[in-house]
Amino acid sequence: MEHRSVTPTAHGPGATFTGDVWVTPITGPTAPSRLSAALVRFTPGARSNWHSHDVGQTLHGVDGSGFVGTRDGRVVRIRAGETVWTPPGEEHWHGAADDTLMAHLALLDVNEDGSDPTRWLEPVTDEQYQAAHTSAGTTR
């Protein structure tokens, strides 16, 4: 067994997020595991850029309400207790609704060679973000 102290929370970088996002790392890959996990907190309206993961990503909602959207226009609402899986290579984004905080656990595996599996792309436009509210319904 190994006990780890709390890792400091860091502000999500402006190059990959819109709005205020806070990331608390939980674990990095420790061989033989390749699991990387973090608690990510989004303020209302905050969201990630478009991105994909080489081996997919699991998002598990822990507080508030937000969205996960894909390039084909599909948007799902994510709430505490709900889980969303994005398969390898699927371009997507995630973030809080415009009127509530949203926090999720972000779980993914690093590549077998230890390289970063995340491919960051362009920001989600305000129009794409607002369309998510309509696509996912207005029930909060």
Share of helix, binned:
under 10%
| CATH level-3 fold name | Jelly Rolls
- Give me the secondary-structure category: mainly beta
The CATH superfamily title: Jelly Rolls
Show unreliable segments.
Answer: none
Task: Domain count, please report it.
Answer: 1
Alpha-carbon distance between the termini?
A: 41 Å
Order of helices and strands: EEEEEEEEEEEEH
Question: Main sheet, how many strands, which sense, barrel?
Answer: 8 strands, antiparallel
CATH class: Mainly Beta
Number of strands: 12
- Residues in β-strands, percent: over 45%
Backbone CA Rg: 15 Å
CATH 2nd-level architecture: Sandwich
Number of H/I helices? 1
- Average predicted local confidence, pLDDT: 94
| Shape call | globular
3D structure, described in words:
There is one protein chain. The chain has 140 residues and is mainly β. The protein has one domain (13-134): Jelly Rolls (Sandwich), CATH 2.60.120.10. Helices cover 7% and strands 45% of the residues. The protein is built from one helix and twelve strands, in the order ββββββββββββα. It has one helix at 126-135; strands at 10-11, 17-18, 21-27, 35-42, 47-48, 51-53, 57-70, 75-79, 83-86, 92-96, 102-109, 118-120. Strands 1, 3, 4, 7, 8, 9, 10 and 11 form an eight-stranded antiparallel β-sheet that branches. It has a two-stranded antiparallel ribbon with strand order 2-5. Strands 6-12 form a two-stranded antiparallel sheet.
